[in-house]
Write a structure and sequence with these properties.
Keywords: Oxidoreductase. The chain has 9 helices and 8 strands. It is α/β, with parallel strands linked by helices.
């Protein structure tokens, strides 16, 4: 059973956690900073980032944390955030692509894409691409990307990425989390071809009580609990991410999730389902993201 007690000393390492002000991202950032890492809290607005920083400093005055603004729904904000990181940091050991939005009313990103596809996938694709040169030159660096168990019931509808045909909030959420997993797998493949030593690891946190359900009604949340069983506290959901970020047992190109049916429990390495491993879909999604963002990597 892997827990936060297994986290080795992280002093000297620099890490970024996106969506660090809430839920799993906050728990992740807190544990990593308490274990000595310098953690950049990348949040949608400065107030949220500063609030998270103060909550961590209340636990430990010595925690090395930095509050920063990253709005993943706007590729311009992603570029600005990355530019600042590249100008002010000489290493990046771990990038955690954690931030996510789920089942909002139909909304578009600044560039006109469906919000969940834009924030959860495109924003993190661009962020990883901009920061890749820094990750590449940091020995033993890792890119951790959060998916969801729901990926298994999803597919990528390349004709509807701006919701030009129809909008179904849950379908689009699952599609975006499948895109996150395809991204992690395809990135591992491309890093391998290039011969770089960066690890790309996917995680999914199981069912957790967080703000992710903010767009659902109490009845819809109750139905989710009925279907999936008891939800974990976010500290427990963060364990899979923490394992991926620091454990020697984490493997590039693999998925880490809670051991009991993927919804509850402690971190375990599992096989990825075929819909996220298909190389033709991976290539198509990657090339599309390169075209939209204008970023080519690794
Ligand atoms: N909770 C679960 O059961 C569950 C299950 C499967 C997967 N996940 C995944 O776990 C990750 C963390 O979610 P959570 O459960 O911790 O939810 P959460 O409490 O709602 O946290 C989501 C975080 O993402 C941030 N975010 C949303 N839109 C953003 C944007 N445009 N730019 C930058 N940051 C943005 C949020 O910022 P604001 O607070 O400012 O909105 C918040 O910090 C997500 O990737 C989610 O898909 C969660």
């Amino acid at each position: 059973m892997w827990t936060t007690k297994n986290i080795p000393d992280q002093r000297g390492k620099t890490m970024i956690v996106t969506g660090a002000n809430s839920g799993i991202g906050f728990e992740t950032a807190r544990e990593l900073s308490l274990s000595g890492a310098y953690v950049i809290l990348a949040c949608r607005n400065f107030k949220n980032a500063q609030d998270a920083l103060e909550r961590i400093r209340q636990i430990s005055e010595k925690a090395t944390v930095e509050a920063s603004v990253l709005d993943l729904s706007d590729l311009y904000s992603v570029k600005q955030f990355a530019k600042t990181v590249l100008q002010t940091h000489s290493r990046l050991d771990v990038l955690i692509n954690n931030a996510g939005v789920a089942t909002p009313p139909e909304t578009k990103t600044a560039q006109g894409y469906e919000l969940q596809f834009g924030v959860n996938f495109l924003g993190h694709f661009a962020l990883t691409g901009y920061l890749y040169p820094l990750l590449r030159k940091t020995k033993g660096s890792r890119i951790v990307t959060l998916s969801s168990n729901g990926y298994q019931h999803a597919s990528i509808d390349f004709q509807n990425l701006r919701s030009e045909i129809s909008y179904d909030p849950m379908r689009e959420y699952r599609q975006s989390k499948l895109a996150n997993l395809i991204f992690s797998v395809e990135l591992n493949r491309r890093i391998g071809i290039k011969g770089d030593e960066v690890l790309s690891i996917a995680t999914q946190p199981g069912a957790n009580k967080t703000e992710l359900t903010r767009h659902l009604s109490p009845e819809e949340i109750a139905a989710g609990v009925e279907r999936l069983g008891t939800f974990m506290e976010p500290w427990q959901g963060a364990l899979s991410t923490l394992f991926a970020a620091v454990s020697e047992e984490a493997v590039s190109g693999k998925l880490i999730q809670p051991h009991e049916d993927g919804y509850r429990g402690y971190p375990s390495l599992v096989s990825i389902k075929e819909n996220a491993l298909d190389t033709a879909t991976g290539k198509k999604l990657w090339e599309l993201a390169e075209e939209i963002t204008g970023i080519h990597f690794p």
